[in-house]
């Protein structure tokens, strides 16, 4: 692969974990597609001993998402609900939010305009 091809290829996805007030915050950066869902899927396997796992995924820095990302979020939602917890999405850019709305995920998963609103009680 040439350097030019690499410069224009998909942006790798990274996921950073933080915690605030007992809520796991996952900040995703890059593109969520069929080639990059592994870091997100692994990060969403949250286990909090002795309490229900509460997770917010900060999507402010996600520039693209396809149905692979939607599948990861729906599977994580199912697993977190079974464990007595919840999943929320925050700060999705317009293009990502549009994908969530077209498929109807925003009716199943709470989507908040900002991280601050998503972690509020």
Automatic annotation (TrEMBL):
STAS domain spans which residues? 13-121
The record's section on Pfam families has: STAS (PF01740)
Looking at the record's lineage, which domain of life comes first?
A: Bacteria
Entry's transmembrane regions = none
Q: Which SUPFAM superfamilies match?
A: SpoIIaa-like
* Matching PANTHER family: ANTI-SIGMA FACTOR ANTAGONIST TM_1081-RELATED, ANTI-SIGMA FACTOR ANTAGONIST TM_1081-RELATED-RELATED
The entry's family comment says:
Belongs to the anti-sigma-factor antagonist family.
The protein in question is named Anti-sigma factor antagonist
């Amino acid at each position: 692969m040439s350097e030019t091809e690499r410069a224009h290829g998909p942006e790798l996805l990274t996921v950073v974990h933080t915690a605030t007030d007992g809520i796991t915050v996952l900040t995703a950066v890059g593109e969520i597609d069929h080639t990059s869902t592994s870091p997100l899927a692994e990060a969403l396997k949250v286990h909090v001993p002795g309490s229900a796992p509460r997770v917010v995924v900060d999507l402010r820095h996600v520039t693209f998402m396809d149905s692979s990302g939607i599948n990861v979020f729906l599977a994580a939602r199912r697993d977190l609900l079974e464990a007595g917890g919840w999943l929320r999405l925050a700060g999705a850019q317009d293009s990502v939010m549009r994908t969530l709305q077209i498929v109807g995920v925003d009716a199943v998963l709470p989507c908040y305009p900002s991280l601050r609103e998503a972690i509020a009680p």
